[in-house]
Amino acid sequence: MTTDMSNVIPSDREFELFQQLIEKKLGIFLPLQKKALLSNRLWKRLIACDIKGFEEYYRYIQSPQGTGELSLALELITTNETYFFREQKHFDYLRDEMLPKLKPGSNFRVWSAAASTGEEPYSIAMLLSERCTNPWELLCSDVNRKVIEQAKVGIYPEMRIKNIPPEYLRRFCRKGIGPREGHIRVNAELRQSVQFFTLNLHEEFPDLGQFDLVFLRNVLIYFENDNKTKILERIAATLKPNGILFVGHSESLHGISSRFVPVKPAIYRLGAQ
Ligand SMILES: C[S@@+](CC[C@H](N)C(=O)[O-])C[C@H]1O[C@@H](n2cnc3c(N)ncnc32)[C@H](O)[C@@H]1O
């Protein structure tokens, strides 16, 4: 089928079916204004499956034969925008306020919980490699399997690396040659210092142990308040006493969770229960 479906927009009823499915699976609520987004992200899948309308596609991804396609559709819905050293103030806080105060010999554990394609965890890993004298562990997860696979590979176009300080570029990145010209690759040592896995924040977490610091940045905005509260309860349970939580600078926990005490904009400390 070659029909151009780029203008196909789901009806309100079709949109509602996807809205409910996405909320059930990911906890993400897509308001009606996001109809065009749904269409832009999924129409190529309708063509690939030779399906003519959104309702038929919805029935297919709900059927036992459509489980692989359902994962693909959910991956396409998530917004993965990210970049190296995004929101520098968090990295300054980690470097200047947290690392100098670590108890000698204690294991410093960090979790990047909506890590997208890896720029966030690799920024953390660069800083920890350079500055952290304690043993450290860095876990990195996302609901989207594809972005986690990309993160593991660690290849990025040069135009996306402008925030990486030059000394980190020299120390942790290799310039691509031949077919990889115009790209850098994070070196093997840094890649191996990060543990990658998929995890849906909307579901119960496996036992991950306890963390000193969790990055939960630019993901809460996609959830409704009830789901935000539940996610923050689960995150609180993974933090060590006085553990620190970073959220995106446009996100606030005010009225959402009383488990955290504000420290600085977008930085919270786990409060006593
Ligand atoms: C905008 S990116 C933020 C990436 C990074 N934290 C940053 O601030 O640059 C949001 C990420 O949240 C992930 N995400 C969305 N829903 C999720 C869920 N239910 N569980 C885990 N990750 C989720 C998306 O796949 C996406 O990679």
- Annotated CATH architecture of the largest domain: 3-Layer(aba) Sandwich
Determine Rg (CA atoms, Å).
20 Å
> Per the principal axes of the C-alpha atoms, what is the gross shape?
globular
Q: State the order of secondary-structure elements, H for helix, E for strand.
A: HHHHHEHEHEHEEHEEHEEE
Subunit arrangement of the protein: single chain
What name does the CATH topology of the largest domain carry? Rossmann fold
Question: CATH-wise, what's the superfamily of the largest domain?
Answer: Vaccinia Virus protein VP39
Total helices: the number is 10
Account of the 3D structure:
Keywords: Methyltransferase, S-adenosyl-L-methionine, Transferase. GO terms for molecular function: methyltransferase activity. Residues 3-273 form the CheR-type methyltransferase domain. The protein has 273 residues and is α/β, with parallel strands linked by helices. The chain folds into two domains: 12-77, Chemotaxis Receptor Methyltransferase Cher, domain 1 (Orthogonal Bundle); 88-270, Rossmann fold, CATH 3.40.50.150. Helices cover 40% and strands 19% of the residues. It contains ten helices and ten strands. It has helices at 12-26, 35-48, 54-62, 67-77, 88-98, 119-131, 145-153, 166-172, 188-192, 225-238; strands at residues 108-112, 136-142, 155-157, 173-175, 183-186, 194-198, 211-216, 239-247, 260-264, 267-270. Strands 6-2-1-7-8-10-9 form a seven-stranded mixed beta sheet. Strand 9 (260-264) and strand 10 form a beta hairpin. Helix 2 runs antiparallel to helix 4. The radius of gyration is 20 Å and the shape is globular. The N and C termini lie far apart (58 Å). It binds S-adenosylmethionine. S-adenosylmethionine binds at residues 26-28, 78-82, 86, 114, 116, 120, 142-144, 147, 200-202, 217-219, 222, 248.
